[in-house]
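Teaching assistant here, posting this on the class forum so everyone can see the example we discussed in section. The complex has three components, and the goal was to see what a joint structure prediction looks like when all of them are supplied at once.
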Amino acid sequence: MIALLLRDLQLAFRAGGGFGLGLAFFLIVTVMVPFSVGPNSTTLGTIAPGVLWLGALLACLLSLDRLLALDWEDGSLDLLATAPLPLEGVLAVKALAHWITTGLPLVLVAPVLGVLLNLAPAGFFWITLSLLIGTPALSMIGTFGAALTVGLRRGGLLLSLLVMPLYVPTLIFGAEVARRGAAGFATETPLLMLAGITAGTLAFMPFAAAAVLRVNLR
Amino acid sequence: MTLQITDLSLARGGVPVLAGLSFTLGPGRALILRGPNGVGKTTLLRTVAGLQPPLAGTITGAEDQIAYGGHSDGLKLGLTVTENLRFWAQIFGQRDFEPALEAFNLAELRDRPAGGLSAGQKRRLSLARLMVTRRPIWVLDEPTVSLDAASVQLFAASVEAHLAAGGSALMATHIDLGLDGDVLDLGPFKAKATAPVADGFDEVFL
Amino acid sequence: MSIWEYANPTKFLRTSARVMPMLWVASAVLIIGGLIWGFFFTPDDYRQGSTVKIIYLHVPSALMAINAWFMMLVASLIWVIRRHHVSALAAKAAAPVGIVMTLIALITGAIWGQPMWGTWWAWDPRLTSFLVLFLFYLGYVALWEAIDNPDTAADLTSILCLVGSVFAVLSRYAVNFWNQGLHQGASLSLDKEENVADIFAYPLWTCMAGFILLFIVLVLYRTGTEIRQRRIQALVARERLEA
């Protein structure tokens, strides 16, 4: 398991691994927002938590189709499925690797982008915390989506269509935490809901993802 | 470990291809599958490897005993030869991959990234992976593709060593490796349109 | 005699062919009757005027939009557990009907909302939930369309339906939490005081019964089509085997 995690990380950080693409995408989306809604800093400050959450979600989504497709193309996925590891574990580890290479950098860079969007000072802590709690769920749900579409032509677009509705609860509660935090309101309820969704997702989605991957491998 | 296949029926893409297939593969034995393209060799090998369920019949003695080698090499082009092998060794709970490097004449290439290897060298690396897994039953799909004559000899020697050590091998190949193995022609087991097939197939719609 | 007998496609086709004509007639009579009753023989609401009458389309379609998904969930479970082909095909057949019902509910809602709330659309929890439901339907249908092997497609869409149901419920709660909303309470329920008056309720019940029958007959009809399509595929496959 650890070997698999290390290999995935190694592959992501090597040349051509695509590390940083998601981060760059997040940056660009954030920069595009003022161009589209105007430079008024009050407006930007109001929408900043939502924009950061949406940007992080899209950046996460963008990198999903590489999550299993590469292993599928070169045959490693077949070999992993015959290896003495449970497929559920393989997928959980792959989701973890995806989170470390995509989700975690997004969490770390979000406060910096918050400055660009004139995020209220109280919001910096909450945007970081909510992304930190919410992004693992995005990676795990995305792994399910990737397993669902792994053998398909034009899988990328379909993957977005399938995964986005599943992201709705995480996005709502995550952005709610950030929004309330920035406005100085109480955040306990949405924060607990967000944490609950992430915990439930991490507990059950590996099984669903392994079930669909087995179907796709046969 | 003896691999036992009893009365196996297989489908590919929802269409039955093989029916009523039975054979036994004991330790130290090799079984070579023959048959025209599309007869179901790959489907049989994938089923034995546990990647897809059979339509009917049983496979015993395969659980956690199979080292599978398919059409693709399963290599990460960004990793070096050693890194690729070490990864699979770790996945299968092994440590030692030096003998495999030697057996397939890869020692000089050890620090080259797999992306820089020729097709034949990649194939050798992917066959070296089988040794690294230390699993007793090798299930191989066209293992000699893109190998030159010398590499085929290396491969044949490693299969012989594997058999001598009590392992066994089930492979689909068209060339003669000079192995002391049985040959199974799949042609006679081709599924007939009239043959009754077990539940879970399009037949229910007829 | 067990209910699972109808999992046999031939038996299913024979039985559904027998009941479908009755269902077509019954649903047409109920819907047309209910609409005429509702449109012409009930008074205008004292606040909402005659616009209230769109309720006879809006509520039944909203009811079926949700229940179509629920039926797909049950059918998917049956496929996953017992692997009856008809069940998987019934789930496939129900999805487009569910999409249309969701669209009708959304569109009639917008037409009703314009004069009442002064807006075609508001991000009210009920409206938003229906929009999210619509997205779930789209994904489900797109997945069916994308996969060539019908059994693989059945397996994958069933699991998507199961997972999607959990997330759809979560989304419903999330959306409720996120915005408190404009939408009036339930129009009909068994224990509440706030129900619409009886004079509106009877034609509404009639329309709802009609929509339920319409949904059932549409799903039976479409399942029959799917079965025939699979039968053609199986025949072609057999032909190829013999060649």
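For the discussion questions: The interface with chain B takes residues 8-9, 83, 85, 148-151, 227, 230-231, 233-235, 237-238, 240-242 of chain C (CB under 8 Å). Chain C has a mean pLDDT of 85. Think about how each of these relates to the inputs above.
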